Amino acid sequence: MAVKFPHNGEIQLEAIINASPLLNTLTLSYVDTRSEAFPGWVIGGANLRSLTIVSNDNHGWQVAELPNLHEGTINLEYCDNFSDFGGLLAGLAQARKLTLNKCYPSFTEDHILETLACTFDNLKSLTLWTHFEEMPTILSTFCMLRNAPNLEELDIMIDVFSDEENEANGEFQNAEWTDGMCPNLQVVRLTGVLCSSNEMCFIQLLLSKATVLRIMSINLGYGSLKSSEDALRELITYRRASPHAQIFFDGK
């Protein structure tokens, strides 16, 4: 159902949500409240179990504490005017399953997601649409992993390729991996892998650090820098911290 709100309609929308105490699923898809300012309106709900936000713009939403949230999806793929992404994530801290399409608010140094004020202690499954070609995205990815101590499943969808790769070699990425990181990680799925040096370093790092890893699934993307044979030949040389780790490889 399509609903149009009047100018500054976010106040009405907030009131509707607050007046629905039994609401357990909320999807805000391309909501336009016709507001030029970002006054800040709060999404809350003591019984909300699923929250989805899809937007190309910043409409001033803030997320209150959602104590019963099971699943959250944030898709800001084309949103370039949202700077407090960490603040938005803090409202999803109770989620068990989280999907983030664009876990980096912009490519500027001022908005790199290096630290979070919350820890996702309940998070078991994380899906990130990201890439390893620019420093903000790399640091944001490691930041999310550091703050999900009980993560069991990780899906990474490679969504961008740039010819101007910022070098983030094994030494750099190893420094980002803190002690005790991802101790429960069992399943990793990487889709659209282009075999850039940064990507391969990340894969090698995961294999060498994830001590209870059971499955790593790798799917090559179009435009891969390596042939299927060369990529597989390199992958099988990587040391595995888990004796039970298996690699499932889907070439071009």
From TrEMBL:
<protein>
    <recommendedName>
        <fullName>FBD domain-containing protein</fullName>
    </recommendedName>
</protein>
<dbReference type="InterPro" id="IPR032675">
    <property type="entry name" value="LRR_dom_sf"/>
</dbReference>
<dbReference type="InterPro" id="IPR050232">
    <property type="entry name" value="FBL13/AtMIF1-like"/>
</dbReference>
